[in-house]
Amino acid sequence: MTRPPSDISLPAPGLRVLLWARGRDLRNRLNQALRESPLRLASTAVFVALIWASLYLFFRTIFEQMQSRMFIESVVAIPLIFHFFFIALTVMLIFSNAVLVHGALFGKGEAGYLYSLPIAPHHIVLVKFLEMLVFSSWSLILLGLPLMLAISRVLEEPGPFYLLFIGLFVCFVPIPGAIGLLAAWAAGMWFPRSARRLMLALGFLVAAGAFAWFVFTWRSVSTTSPEWLDSFLSRMDLVKSILLPSTWVTRGIDHAVHGNLADATFYLLVTVANALFFGWLAVTVVAPYAVTAFARVGSSTAPRTAATPRAKPGRGRPRHLLAGPTLERAVFFYLSDPMRRIVVKDLRSFLRDPMQWSQLAILFGLMALYIINVPQVNPEFSSWKTQRLISFLNLAAVSLILATFTSRFVFPLVSLEGQQMWLIGLLPLSRRKILWAKFSFALAVTLTCAMVVMILAAVMLELPLQLAAVQLMVTAGACVALCGLSVGTGALMPVFKQRNPSRIASGFGGTVNLLLSVAYVGIMLAAMCWLTLFRSLTEQATEPVGILGDWPQAPDFVALAVVIAVVLFSLVTAGLAMHVGGKKFERTQF
Amino acid sequence: MSIVLQSVTKCFGPKVAVDQLSLEVCQGELFAFLGPNGAGKTTTIKMIVGLLRADQGALTVCGWRVGAGTSSKGDGLAAKAQMSYVPDQPFVYDKLTGREFLEFVGRMYRLAPGLIRERVQELSDRLGMAEFLDQYSESYSHGMKQRVVLASAFLHVPKVLVIDEPMVGLDPRTVRTVKDLFINYVRGGGTVFMSTHTLEVAEALADRIGIIHRGRLIAVGTLDDLRAERSRDVSLESIFLELTADRDDPQPETVPA
């Protein structure tokens, strides 16, 4: 076969044009936001500033406390905190980048379009890598700025400190990002069918392993001896290895904090050099095989062709979710059959999507691990004051996890039905009932997870019956409130054209929902804090008979009123949100 | 030859999606590629445009080899520079206007800015896009998107146009416009490789027709050739149904007069 003449011009401005398109896209988004929703943009800016200010105050308080305590050398403790911080950041960035890059480079949509154009693959990989790096780390960079300001305020740092800190933070991010890119590509090449599940499973294993290592290390140190801190710190040498990027950044910050600008600059340059090297390495390795990985991932999800032998009759039928319609009817007996069908449909979608349940499993799994190890970590856990403190902290942790989960996964539920409204909307079911079906599904999932963790906590902490009952009731109320808020707000501010749940959750409506959820959790926790901590820890020197008093002889009606008020507040929150959302949803046109 | 496939085979695990497919499409020809759902049409098209790599065989477009991976990196880009590809579910950037998207494509193919503007205007007039070309594409209907994507395919006047289901979502007037566009393009020396389920379009436009079934090319030729093989003057639909019939397929009911 003869080659055509060599006057064929190969278009090769791919990188420039891709960056131009990205820039134009960003400009258009900003213009659209300014034109169509300036109030939304302003509110977002205000909330970001509020979050910044809160984080700054939080970090400043912590560092001031640490500096004022004599038996903890802040000179030692702060670097160790940074070591852990940046190691945790490394792991998080690796996995978040891996998941994002996998979708961007090997998923459907833009990737296939770009690969069909005459653009050099390494330009595509480079642009996508940089994009996903910014996408996965912008919030962490945002977190780093209040941290930096807090340190400088407490330790009164000179001007160059700011530049060094920002430089170290920003230049650190590409290193785990590059590892994430390589991981995503490797998963696409050799595990195309289960790449995401593999990454999520690995992430869970790493998190669980790190937690187990930390607990083991802590338990192996005797905290009764005065030298326990030295002993503990000496076991942390693994995290201070000079080969780790987290160590370079930590040492750079440490030197900057102490005014050793030359040493700090040295570590900055080490970080920059490695960031450039790892970035170059990752792009160079991945680019030539990016289309191959894309093809393998696409092939793994390709529909069966006509060459596929037909499945034998009776095989391959989807099994019932709960091992039979009888059990489904028993569990959701309170729902009508059409509503039950919607709940079962949502549960099936949830359980068949690892991206959804894995995050819940990781968060609640870590909570359960922590709860199981509390008695070993704190030998005084059985004292009533410690019990009240830890049980309150458990309630706070579970509530915040629920708020995060419902905002991320429950809020988009109504929006995701937008594409199916031609089906859902024509069912013999009122729209309000559709919302209540969504609520039932969300409550089933969250209540199950939260109750398991709180019951486990009550058992491990050997909580008195009254306290355990109050904790469980308040937790159940929180599940109802947060599910109702998320479903109701989701119906009030839907995003029907968007199919990506994470983008729905991170939009304006999702942000409002998250803030409302956090506000609810704050109010609920404030009441419970007063009840379980202030009343008992400040007002009572001896162990009280029970958190609700001595029933039936001497009940504490004030405490009872607080608990009832919290539960009612939860029910009202859910009811109000569902009512307002339901009214809007009934009027919504498609 | 514009497109040449030589004994191309593609497997997905143990399943053979395309089996020893050999085909040649000449310059200036409109080739219609037909087949039932799951026959291997889209797999073949994706191999031609380089999104899938054949397990066996060779593919060339305008003399340049096509294929993913390092060994054909330079050839692959050269082949892509000669063609345009319009998938059945085209992608456009939500937050770019149609005009900006066309500018993006034009710049990608190294067209001068003035030439891009001129061609965008011409295609906008031909495809009736003036009303929505300056709106964000997230607001487009499927038909509008299809028109913008078709315009992007013709912007740099490729030598080969590979298109999957070109008429889906288009109103009758636009269907007619697109047909005229294809005819003029082919008369000007361009090659069209078109996959479609709309047999009337294939019948009206195609110079040659290929029918694929269960990964194998079971018939190729002009409509007259295919009729001659059947020794009777039947429609393309009848030929298609006869060639792609499986034993278990239900027979179409004849409506009594």
Question: Per CATH, what is the topology of chain B?
Answer: Rossmann fold
Number of H- or I-type helical stretches of chain B: 9
Described by its quaternary structure, the protein is heterodimer
List segments of chain A where confidence is low: pLDDT < 50 over at least 5 consecutive residues. 1-11, 302-321
| Unreliable stretches of chain B | 68-73
The CATH superfamily label of chain B reads P-loop containing nucleotide triphosphate hydrolases
Tally of helical runs of chain A: 23
Strand content of chain A: under 5%
Q: What is the helix fraction of residues of chain A, given as a range?
A: over 70%
**What's the N-to-C terminus distance of chain A?**
56 Å
- Secondary-structure element series of chain A: HHHHHHHHHHHHHHHHHHHHHHEEH
- Main sheet record of chain A: 2 strands, antiparallel
Q: Indicate the mean pLDDT of chain A.
A: 80
Number of strands of chain B: 10
Give the H and E element order of chain B: EEEHEEHEHHHEHEHEEHH
CATH architecture of chain B: 3-Layer(aba) Sandwich
Features:
heterodimer; A: 590 residues; mainly alpha; 2 domains; two-stranded antiparallel sheet; 23 helices; 76% helix; 1% strand; globular; B: 257 residues; alpha/beta; Rossmann fold; 6-stranded mixed β-sheet; 4-stranded antiparallel β-sheet; 9 helices; 23% strand
